[in-house]
Amino acid sequence: MQPTTAAVTSGSLSPVGRTAAPLREQVIAALRHAILSFELQPGQRLVERELIERLQVSRTTVREALRELASEGLVTVIPQKGATVSAPSAEDAKDLYEVRASLESLVVRRFVERASDEQAQRLHEAVERFAAMTATSDDIRATLEAKDGFYEVLLEGAASEVLETLLEQIQARVRVLRATSMMRPGRIEESVRELRGIVAAIRRRDADEAARLCADHIWGAARSALTQMEAVAG
Q1: Does the pLDDT value for residue 3 go beyond 50?
Q2: 28 or 229: whose pLDDT is higher?
Q3: Gyration radius of the chain over CA positions
Q4: Which architecture characterizes domain 23-85 according to CATH?
């Protein structure tokens, strides 16, 4: 994906508030939210002057925030050229999906081992909400948010702060890839079927099958995303 030259639009960001949270953390949170919600697009240039004006903070604060987001993989900083919203290459995508498949499979195993029947029921309900939403809307942002509900319950039931932190980091890095994957015709319907299969195995307390189906789901998403990326590049 090539960087775009679009500027930060008036609707993308607003001045940060003066709350108890340190100003730097507020700016990081505002920019992170704008990136993950696609208000700032992959490949878009992040012009310091525009960010300073929009957020009404100092150049130092903006630069510190961009460095933090670069460490998270959400921003790419090129010396002498500035910062852009990260846009993963095909090679990056393959590596990210491989890590994600292994990590999410482990999270699913921990859910089977540790989650209550009530949490397993809530996981089922989260999938059905995702299915209902996607059946009536083609809004990719809303689709991602609906699927986030599945991960919230999954991580709660897995009860591992370590896995939660790692998965949240990976999910942030692959969010644009998840959106790309779901743009392929038929992928959302496949995703619903795959998630239902995972939940069914979880409710049977079959950790091996649930983990296998989870890995299959991630690799299905990877193939879909890479196909879409190749189509755009071609």
Answers
A1: no
A2: 28
A3: 19
A4: Orthogonal Bundle (1.10)
